[in-house]
Amino acid sequence: MNYRPEVDGLRAVAVIPVILFHAGFGVVSGGFVGVDIFFVISGYLITGIIYAEIRKKNFSIINFYERRARRILPALFFVSLVSLVLAWNWMLPEEFESLSESLIAVNLFVSNFYYWLDTDYFAGAAEMKPFLHTWSLAIEEQFYFIFPLVMLLLGFLTRPYLLATICLALLASLGLAQWASEIHPSTNFYLLPTRAWELLAGSVVAIAMHERRLNVSKRLHNLGSLAGLALIVYSILVFDKTTPFPSLWAVLPVLGASLIILFARTDNIAGRLLSLKPMVGIGLISYSAYLWHQPIFVFARERSFDMPSHLDFLFLSLLSLLLAYITWRFVEQPFRQKQRFTRKHIFSGALAATVLMLGFSAYGVHSEGVPTRLSEEALEIVAVRDDRDLGRRGCQAMPGHPIAMEDACEFNEEYLKKIVVWGDSQATPLVLPTAKEAETLAMSVKQLVFTNCLPVAGYTRSDSEECGKFNNEALNLITKNNDIEIVFMLGRYPLQFEAVPFDNQEGGVEMKDAVYAVPSGKLGNEIDETSPHRVTTVGGLIKKTVTTLVNSGVKVVLIYPVPETGWDVPEFLAKEALYGKKRDTPLSTSYQVFRERTRSAYQQLDQVEDHENLLKIKPESLFCNTRLPGRCVAQIDGKPLYYDNNHLSRFGATLLIEHIFQKIREAGWIQNNTIIASK
Predict the structure, then answer these.
(1) In this predicted model, what pLDDT tens digit does every residue of 282-294 receive, in sequence order?
(2) HSE on the CB side for 302, CA within 13 Å?
(3) Is the pLDDT of residue 214 over 80?
(4) Which site from 49, 61, 350, 569 is most exposed, i.e. has the minimal number of CB atoms within 10 Å?
(5) Cα 113 to Cα 4, 105, 187, 399, 457, distances in angstroms
(6) What is the C-alpha to C-alpha distance for residues 374 and 353, in angstroms, rounded to an integer?
(7) How many CB atoms lie within 10 A of CB 186?
(8) Which residue(s) pair with 420 in the sheet?
(9) Would you list the DSSP string of 355-392?
(10) Which of 111-120, 333-342, 409-418, 607-616 has the lowest mean pLDDT?
């Protein structure tokens, strides 16, 4: 195929938005479509080569895979090796174990399956996956494992019949993508059957243009190529993470790339723009730039105690281009020279590198992240992360995993009288410390916890009606069961009232999307996060729920918001130990920020009327403005109070439960080591 500089320029149009999108620049909210543009370019270039060789009857599978190996593997191995070195020095065991798992998938070209089962591409957790972007490489290699064989089988067809066959496959894949975008969005995003049509679009263009030039006017060339650019720019600026993808919406950037390949020439406007030396230069190094940018961003976040700024990410984006040039110049180019590296060198070297990568990665997984890399101090802090599993496995309901009331986990089952812990995942850490205290009172503890679901009847979280159903059943169980004496109610009200993740304004920014509280049923469907009466309406439901409980004779411990931290506390402190940073005062956040964040929650909880069966507990009295004036501490005596950025650790939960039982005794609810029944 004749060299076309405008196609290299199109590569630049693909890679720059992807980098800026992953850097967090909102102006390119649809920057992820750069991958789809890459697919079209790849389908065009590689199909053009395969088709030409088949027509000349000199196509060789071994030659094809040799070219793929020279193109893909050297830079991939180099970036992987550098990432492993950085991870060894900077990552905690859990992250290193996860990286090792992903690297196995990368080397087997199945990382799209790995991330399909493990990660939401648009979730905050994806920002800490160094090899997440390799899902697209896996799709390409899976496609090119199958496609050359299909082309060989169909090689006897004339061009019109071959194009018709590929177009039918393209439409089938596109139709599947549109269907799956609503039914199975994650499967749709990561797997080949719903992405193949994008590569096939490039294939159609390559076969249609083989040994031909479009015999149309210069005006039509201009219009066609500019329309292609407009479609791509529109997609990059307008699409966002809420756009179903891939789906019919993906036709816009795919069609845009196809139009540019068809119509752009060095003598028209779009062609001249794309053929500018800076565009061509970035296009030439685009593969290495794509490989580098995600690990650079991840390790910058990993090494930093604060979230890098937009200026930092701009610098890191430029760094990815610099490293891409170095890799292209000194890794990619030499390995493409057959006189320097023969086929035997390429295949034997690739096999050796793969075996070494797989072996070392398997060691990383087997050793659970090679914890021996860390000091005893860091390991002791990291161990607090395991508190998230205490009493949680199989006991916490969530969307798609409901738990019937009769099947909810119960502790100290030999005792008839019960304490119920009701709430969202923030309530889970309270269960075992409560069970320990309850045992001294000859009581059992029942866990009614639904992820991200406040303990409020008549309400639900914005993305799950199951939450509302669970709560209504919980209220019914508690009021109808005469053995239930006390209910502890705890939820993360600030998150669902404010509908935004927590930012401690000191660099600790929670990386997740927030669900929000709405009334359940038809009314909830008419309310979104901006509705002016949403919070007060849900507040009224809190008041109604508590009133129903106390009037039925149940004693209620209404727990106010647990301070959020913004940082993953064990990770933050362990990284300090890992990097040798000494701390003079406990890790803490602003008490004023806490007050502002919880103002709405406090207003609604304060409206719950006092009652002899009601006890209001404010965790801030333990953690805020006491040990450090004007601060909410995240550790006491060097021990983390949290196992992440908002859930109490076993130590923190035990302190809170001991405080609660002290208040229960002061309220006179316990006499002769027995709860005074109200029912």
Answers:
(1) 999 999 999 999 9
(2) 26
(3) no
(4) 61
(5) 34, 8, 9, 22, 39
(6) 27
(7) 15
(8) 446, 487
(9) HHHHHHHHHHHHTTS-GGGS-HHHHHHHGGGGGGGTTT
(10) 111-120
